[in-house]
């Protein structure tokens, strides 16, 4: 477990870098995690995906599948992988401050 | 003391196995339960940022055929996993019924039907290939295949493409 300090707020992260408590999340923390993951600047499209992931997790308790992400986030699958080449669902969850998605799809 | 700990962490990092960068998955069986595992593994690889190639050979080639991709069925005979006596498995409609039940279950888990799954893997940057020998054996042509197919490869070409990756046979 590590603590990250962003803009005067500290957030707890698990060994893989996911936030331990989604309520500690801030936009600034998300942007900082993105930089660490090799995305220097989050665009409007990145934020759309991150916001969708976060909202889905907070309302249903589970992160959406890549299929649902492609169908319902407003960003198609091809573009999801252009925005997050190292894995859209995993990265958007990390940036959005929610736990690592556990599904196989 | 901190130096020692830093050294230990450094050593651990250097000894840790390299993460998998690339997988080449061969799918050789033409039943529903023969095709899905390879698709799930390929999609799962892409979700982790791992490169993924799919190579369909023998009866699995049905998954790439326009006229067959939506007609793939669960094997109800010779499949001990069904826990169904073979004599019942041969009855007309059993395979249809088992397929329908399994497809519903997959849909509940948000696992798409085979053609949509192939489209998803294709859009995710995974590559889809057919086996050249099988295509010749069944006398198939380019227009027989779904548009997500990236090409038809010989075994040699498949090994070329798989360089530096892990090969998984299903």
Question: Overview of this structure, please?
Answer:
The complex is a heterodimer of chains A (105) and B (170). Chain A is mainly alpha-helical and 105 residues long. Chain A has one domain: DsrC protein, C-terminal domain (Arc Repressor Mutant, subunit A, Orthogonal Bundle). Chain A is 47% helix and 10% strand. In chain A, strands 1-2 form a two-stranded antiparallel sheet. In chain A, a hairpin with a 2-residue loop joins strand 1 and strand 2. Chain A starts with a strand and ends in a 10-residue tail after the last helix. The radius of gyration of chain B is 20 Å and the shape is globular. The longest helix of chain B has 16 residues. Chain B has a domain of 110 residues: 3-Layer(aba) Sandwich (Hypothetical Protein Ychn, Chain: A). Helices cover 42% and strands 14% of the residues of chain B. In chain B, helix 2 runs parallel beside helix 5. In chain B, strand 3, helix 6 and strand 4 form a beta-alpha-beta unit. At the A-B interface, helix 3, helix 4 and helix 5 of A face helix 2 of B.
Helix % of chain B is 40-55%
C-alpha-based Rg of chain B, rounded: 20 Å
Named CATH topology of the domain at 21-71 and 111-169 in chain B: Hypothetical Protein Ychn, Chain: A
User: What CATH architecture label of chain A applies?
Assistant: Orthogonal Bundle
- CATH classification class of the domain at 21-71 and 111-169 in chain B: Alpha Beta
- Taken in chain order, the helices and strands of chain B follow as HEHEHHHEHEHE
Largest sheet of chain B: 5 strands, parallel
Tell me the radius of gyration of chain A. Answer: 13 Å
Largest interface by Cβ-Cβ < 8 Å: A-B, 18 and 15 residues
Looking at the structure, what is the overall shape of chain B?
Answer: globular
The CATH class of chain A, by name, is Mainly Alpha
Number of DSSP-assigned strands of chain B: 5
Main β-sheet, spatial strand arrangement of chain A = 1-2
Q: Order of strands across the biggest sheet of chain B?
A: 4-3-2-1-5
Can you count the helices of chain B? 7
Using DSSP, what is the number of strands of chain A? 2
Structural class by SSE content of chain B: alpha/beta
Structural class of chain A: mainly alpha
């Amino acid at each position: 477990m590590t603590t990250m300090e962003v803009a005067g707020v500290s957030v707890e992260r698990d060994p893989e870098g996911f936030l331990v408590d989604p309520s500690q999340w801030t936009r600034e923390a998300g942007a900082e995690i993105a930089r660490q993951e090799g995305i220097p600047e989050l665009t409007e499209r990145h934020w759309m995906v991150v916001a969708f992931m976060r909202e889905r997790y907070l309302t249903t308790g589970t992160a959406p599948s890549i299929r649902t992400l492609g169908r319902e986030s407003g960003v198609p699958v091809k573009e999801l992988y252009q925005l997050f080449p190292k894995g859209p669902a995993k990265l958007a969850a990390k940036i959005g401050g929610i736990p690592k998605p556990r599904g196989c799809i | 003391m901190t130096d020692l700990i830093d050294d230990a962490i450094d050593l651990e990092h250097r000894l840790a196995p390299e993460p998998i960068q690339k997988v080449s998955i061969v799918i050789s069986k033409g039943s529903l339960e023969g095709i899905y595992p390879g698709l799930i593994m390929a999609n799962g690889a892409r979700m982790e940022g791992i490169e993924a190639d799919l190579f369909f050979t023998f009866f699995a080639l049905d998954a790439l055929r326009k006229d067959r991709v939506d007609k793939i069925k669960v094997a109800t005979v010779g499949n001990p996993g069904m826990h169904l006596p073979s004599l019942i498995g041969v009855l007309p409609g059993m395979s249809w019924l088992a397929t329908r039940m399994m497809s519903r279950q997959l849909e509940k888990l948000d696992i798409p039907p085979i053609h949509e799954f192939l489209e998803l893997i294709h859009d995710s940057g995974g590559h889809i290939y057919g086996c050249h020998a099988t295509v010749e054996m069944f006398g198939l042509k380019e227009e027989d295949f779904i548009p997500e197919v990236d090409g038809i490869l010989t075994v040699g070409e498949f090994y070329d493409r798989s360089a530096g990756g892990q090969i998984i046979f299903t």
